[in-house]
Design brief:
The complex is a heterodimer of chains A (303) and B (265). Chain A has 303 residues and is mostly helical. Chain A is 78% helix and 1% strand. The relative contact order of chain A is 0.11. The chains are: A mainly alpha (303), B mainly alpha (265).
């Protein structure tokens, strides 16, 4: 009774061995077996729907029946170029994204420098936790918290009142959005700048000092050029995330329109998917241009 | 090397920025214990009564349950497909390899609204009813990327000599995978899975476009904030969501720092 079981076990072992031999001799078979499921998922579901979306940007909606008219035309795009308010929304959104990016760069640089070159390993670990917690703590929770802080009876005005200043009244405004966006994406700027600073050898800074440069001169001529790829890498996040967000403008903004809000209301309320798709190509084009510049500046090695 | 004054200024700046990063999170956690249903500052009375009320709210419980199911299923799909893609891209050189690693980063690089919108019109024109499964498809797409990134980063650090040694000692492909490759990768796979779950649990934008009538927890929060209803319960739910995303991330950071079998020290 025992012998057949052992034999069965052996033949199972040889079968397995034979399969692994076959796979070893034909690596393309292994590659295909591994790649087919994830590729099918991405090509069939994701790429196909992206392509369909951008194809639909060239269709229109019949204004009377709100039926989809599958007739090729560039009407949606000419509308974006000709209508002044649609153009202004693009400039406003890109302007806000640029302001957020510059703010985050200014806030992040000294922090990253302190973490790399001055803080002891223990303090550095604590600071890291301080940067990583807001990176991962729920996005909605953080936006909602700022809504409570900035509203007229919130923490900000209470604090201002305590030190004898008048209330600010910046809740639900572009200023509020600028603060909240800068807050939300700040960790995305600190981390790549930190990584870039960490790669500068101490000897470079010592050499600069030996040659007679003071602190400001070393910062300007040595540190800034060397961390530029890190800054650009961080700015990819701050820029792209600001361009694509419609929730923060809804929750803390003052009712001004931004690119993502226009897209959002055209998908939902107006039910004009072709126009929404055309308008959504704007941030994609802006990011494509931005990424091309970033690539030239060597940002991808710093990611 | 920096002067004393520079060190003090930089230290103070860093302290203020870290404070700026943490204060809103501390504050929203304190609001969960606000006894009043008016969300003004300062809080006068503290209470834990909203926790019980939030727990008894069936809408919140349904949303929590949906979020957990979506997170688990998406993470499961992502673990399978993300690891397979990482193995293939790392192990083999083939035509279109660069294109594949580019496509795999797209769901993270493109603004969420575009992914969401694309999937939404794909489902709507394809006549697919929006359900738990359409949310899962949306989430799994970006969860795959997280697992892929974690696993491929580990694979790049594992020397190829490990598997060669195993083969030389007579192990077949399956045994090498089971006793060498898998143990080396295990922490990276678990870490990727935890990050994927945290990301799915907190996702709003793609979820908004792929969910039908049903609410995940973030969608319930968004709706309640917009309508200004149930705000005390929102405070409680928000605290729970913070904890439920931070705990897996903390575990995952631990796991990737200490690289399992490859640990040197």
């Amino acid at each position: 009774m025992v012998v057949p079981a052992a034999e069965a076990g052996r033949s199972l072992g040889t079968a397995r061995r034979r399969i692994s031999e076959v796979l070893w001799r034909r690596p393309w078979l292994r590659a295909a077996a591994l790649l087919t499921p994830p590729l099918l998922w991405f090509v069939v579901i994701y790429l196909l729907s992206l392509v369909a979306l951008f194809v639909s940007a060239f269709w229109t909606i019949d204004p009377f029946t709100s039926e989809l008219v599958k007739h090729w035309n560039v009407g949606n795009f000419t509308q974006i170029f000709q209508q002044a308010d649609l153009r202004n929304i693009i400039f406003r959104t890109v302007g806000l994204a640029a302001a957020v990016t510059i703010t985050d760069a200014l806030l992040a640089l000294p922090v990253a420098y302190f973490m790399v070159r001055i803080a002891s390993p223990r303090i550095r670990a604590v600071l890291f936790v301080g940067v990583l917690i807001p990176l991962w703590a729920s996005y909605l929770a953080r936006v909602y918290s700022w809504r409570l802080i900035l509203q007229s009876d919130g923490v900000l005005n209470w604090t201002l009142g305590k030190v004898g200043l008048p209330g600010s009244g910046i809740g639900y405004s572009v200023w509020a959005m600028w603060i909240v966006f800068s807050y939300l994406w700040l960790p995305f700027m600190i981390l790549p700048v930190y990584a870039a600073l960490e790669r500068i050898p101490d000897s470079y800074l010592e050499a600069s000092r030996d040659l007679g440069a003071r602190g400001m001169r070393t910062t300007r001529s040595i540190v800034l050029p060397l961390i530029l790829p890190g800054l650009v890498a961080g700015s990819i996040f701050t820029f792209s995330l600001t361009l694509g967000d419609f929730i923060t403008p809804q929750l803390v903004g003052g009712g001004e329109q931004f690119i993502a809000n226009v897209v959002y209301s055209n998908v939902g309320i107006a039910n004009n998917v072709p126009f929404a798709a055309a308008y959504a190509t704007v941030p994609v084009v802006v990011m494509a241009v931005y990424l091309t510049i970033a690539r030239r500046l060597g940002a991808f090695e710093a990611l | 090397m920096e002067t004393r004054a520079t060190r003090i200024v930089l230290g103070a700046w860093t302290a203020l920025v870290i404070l700026f990063l943490l204060v809103p999170i501390v504050l929203i956690s304190v609001y969960a214990f606000n006894a009043s249903n008016v969300q003004s500052w300062p809080i006068t009375h503290f209470s834990t009564s909203w926790f019980g009320q939030a727990w008894r709210n069936t809408e919140i419980r349904d949303a929590l349950w949906l979020s957990v199911r979506v997170g688990l299923i998406s993470t499961g799909i992502a673990l399978g497909l993300g690891s397979a893609a990482a193995f293939a891209v790392h192990r083999f050189r083939f035509f279109g390899r660069e294109a594949i690693s580019f496509i795999l980063v797209l769901p993270i690089a493109l603004p969420g609204i575009i992914t969401g919108m694309a999937l939404n019109s794909f489902f709507v024109t394809g006549g697919v009813t929006l359900s738990l499964w359409t949310i899962v498809i949306g989430h799994a797409t970006f969860c795959i990327v997280v697992v892929y990134n974690n696993v491929i980063a580990r694979l790049r650090r594992v020397p190829g000599s490990l598997t060669e040694a195993s083969m030389d000692l007579g192990a077949d492909g399956w045994q090498t995978f089971r006793y060498v490759t898998l143990p080396v990768l295990s922490t990276a796979i678990v870490a990727g899975g935890l990050l994927a779950f945290a990301l799915s649990f907190d996702e709003v934008i793609v979820t908004y476009f792929t969910a039908g009538a049903q609410n995940t927890l973030p969608l319930w929060i968004l709706g309640a904030i917009r309508q200004g209803t149930n705000l005390p319960q929102v405070n409680v739910v928000v605290l729970v969501v913070i904890l439920l995303t931070l705990i897996p991330v903390a575990v995952s950071v631990r796991l990737t720092r200490d690289t399992g079998v490859l640990r040197r020290r």
